Structures are given as structure tokens and as C-alpha cells.
Amino acid sequence: MQTLFTEQQLKIPAIADSNQILRKCVHCGFCLATCPTYQLLGDELDSPRGRIYLIKDMLENNRSPTKKVVKHIDRCLSCLSCMTTCPADVNYMHLVDHARRHIEKHYRRPLFDRALRALLAIILPRPSLFKLMVHLSHTSKAIHWLLPKRLKVMTDMVQTIKVKQNILSKNYYTANKNTTARVGLLAGCVQQAIDNNINQATIQLLTRLGCDVFLLKNTSCCGAIEHHLGKAAQTEKRIKNNVKNWTRLIDAQGLDKIIINASGCGTMVKDYAYLLRDDNTLSAEASLISAKTMDITEFVAQCDVNKLSFRPNKTLTVAYHSACSMQHGQQITSQPIDLLEKFGFQVKTIPEGHMCCGSAGTYNLLQPELAGQLGRRKADNIKTVKADIVATGNLGCMTQMQTYLDLPIVHTVELLDWASGGTKPIALIK
Ligand code: SF4
Ligand code: SF4
Asked: Is the CB of 29 under 6 A from ligand 2?
């Protein structure tokens, strides 16, 4: 694609990067076939190629975004399905992230939208505040009908969340036998607030595999929530803090890897190297952290799992849902399925497996109608395979799918832990 940025504009690193990305696009339109919003709405402007044109025009002309541009960019899930499909290696993720920052800086949203987005950026990364929000939405059911429609949709969604008791008592867990690796585990923000069973299963499996596990608990949020809301300053502050704190822990404890069990966070942390590429003091540390980061299934697939004692459960069939951030964001596709089969489960592939379930970070709260259509479509596809359980590697997808599906939904690591001597996932206890 031809671009017309001025020399002056190209001196700005973010513009120079977006220029490179735009120039790779050959307009072929292959990405339209796998874009969920284009599939639902059939409008070119709700496709990756259409959005690329909108972003190009907005950045090249240094325009304040129009309402129309904002509508189509906001409707993008950042599912990155288009990146998997693109034959020209267009990094749509970095381009749309740039567009979101530009919109946040130059566009004045209606008051309600501004307040809602600010509230999400404050509450979600803070486990105790998020827990309080879930609690309030449960206790305010009686006055629920008084809320404005968009807030009502949001509280409906939050009310489906059941907070599970916090069961993590320590910040450090030692390997069951000889230590073969020392790893840091990101406890997550929303995950830490509502479902620490996932972290517990992860720790049990890792210690059984010979890992000493250090919880990255104090800096719980990876920054993805603020990043996807286009809040540049907050994101930068958070990821710099994380890089400093984690680097201290890596140095002090000699950590070999950083393990992440929410694929949305994994995609974000693996991108720290890019996000801090121009930072004179932290770029090397950020690169090291990105290089050390692995999804839990990616890590376990490299371990010697044959030393575990399996309790295979061939009778349970598992529909595996690959989160977008797992398959498109990190290109992790075979490892979770191979592990589930190796650990004794029968795995079923879901039709339209490349399509987003509609969770997409805060998308199901900000775009509830489109997210609802995608959630129902995902649930219908899952029902066709007639599985006993659904497994996935991202808490956001678990919460979204639970709204539309009457089946137990577990994290992949909960099944791996259970099959190798751990506790039965709570979702499977009747
Ligand atoms: S990220 Fe997803 S929703 Fe956005 S343009 Fe790409 S495929 Fe479409
Ligand atoms: S598939 Fe890639 S090159 Fe083709 S239009 Fe989409 S983004 Fe551009």
C-alpha cells in the first residue's frame, strides 16, 4: 500500500512503525474471510482491510478521529484472526493499538462512555476493587431495573461471575522433588480476584514437574486492559513498573521463565519488548522478560511429563476452545490439545475454531450486542461436538462462554493438574 507520510511525520517512531506496517498491506482482502465483525456485519469498514484504510487516512492527515472512524475501530475485537490469515505479514495488532491511542488522545467521547472506560481502567486491574464490583452487582439485584441499559447489560454479565475463595496463601512454592527450573507465575488481576483455582492448579502442576514457583503477585496486572482502552500513559507506567519489579525478582531468584496462564496477558507480556523498544533504560530488561515469557501449556509441553503419574479419564470428552490470544496472538495451537490427549482426555475440535467468542478483554462490556452474537455462535458450535466439558486457556473466554453455555467450563491447566494427581476442578464437582 502506498503511504504519503511527510518526512516530519516519519521522525515520530510510532508513525514510522505504522508506516512500515501499512506499506506491507497488498489489499488482497484474504483477511475479510476470517474477521468476526465482517462476518457479522458484512461492512468493509468493519473488516481488517477497511479499518487499515481508516487508520491510514486518520494518521496520514493527522486528523482528529471522526465518530464514524471511532465506531469501526471500537468494533474491532483485537482478536488478531486477520494476522493469522494475512499472507503479507501485516502487523495489524501494532497498527490498531496505535489507532486506539490516537483516538484516546484526540477524540472526545460522550460523557457516559468516558466515565465507563475510565471506571473499567481503574477497577479491572485491581483485584480487590473488582471483587467489590462483583459483590455489589450481586447485592444490587433488586434495583437492577433502575440502571441505564448499557450499565444493566454490564451488571448482567458481572452477575454471572461466581467469586471462588482465595486459596493462595504463599508467594513461593517449592518443587516436590529435585528442582529442575525456577519460574515466576503471573497471578493475574481479574483471575486473582475471582478464580484462584486456576493459579492453584498451575502451581500444583509446576511443582510436580520440578519447578520452584514464585508468584508475581503484587504487580498483578500486565497492562493489557489499559492498553486496549488506548490509555497510553497508564499502560506505560504499569509495564515499566512490572519490568522493574520482575527484573529484580529474576535477578534475585535466578528465574528461568515467566509463566502465564491467561493467554490475553501472555500476548501482552510477550509484546513488552516492542512496547518499550525506545526506552533507553528498560528496553533490554523488557526484551529479556518477553523472551522468558511462556504460556503454561507451551512450558509444560517442553517438560518431561512422563515422570508424572497419570490418572487418565478417557470417558470425558473435552471441547477445546483456543482463545484468540492463544492461537492468533501467540500462535500456540497444538500444545494444549496434545497435552490434554497425553494426559488422558478425548479432545474434540470445535467448528469455526478461529472465531472469537466475543470476550476480547473489555469488549463484552463495551460492545455487548456484537459480543452476544459471537458468544451465542460459539456456544452453538460447541454444542455440535457434544462434549462433556469445555477447556480453554483464558479466564475471559471462560466467563464469556459460561453466559451462553450450560456445560462445565474449565481452564486447560485444571484438567492437566487433575489428571496428574491434583484436585478435581470445581466446575466438575456436582
Ligand atoms: S482483530 Fe479481529 S475483529 Fe479486528 S479486524 Fe482483525 S479479525 Fe477483525
Ligand atoms: S490479508 Fe493482509 S495484505 Fe491482504 S488486505 Fe488483509 S491485511 Fe492487507
From this structure: yes
Query: For residue 196, what pLDDT is reported?
Result: 82
Among the ranges given (27-41, 147-161, 208-222, 392-406), the one the predictor scored with the smallest mean pLDDT: 147-161
Please identify, among 74, 106, 138, the residue that sits at the C-terminal boundary of a domain: 106
Q: Which residues contact 343 (CB under 8 A, 6 or more apart)?
A: 305, 310, 312, 415, 416, 419, 420
Nearest residue (by CA) to ligand 1, atom 8, is 35
Instruction: Confirm whether pTM is higher than 0.85.
Output: yes
Domains: count for the chain:
2
- Rg of the chain (C-alpha set): 21
Domain range for 91 = 7-106
For residues 325 and 264, what is the distance between their CA atoms, to the nearest angstrom?
5
CATH number at residue 69: 1.10.1060.10
Ligand sitting nearest the alpha carbon of 74: 1
Residue 394 lies in a domain: yes
Give residue 333's pLDDT: 97
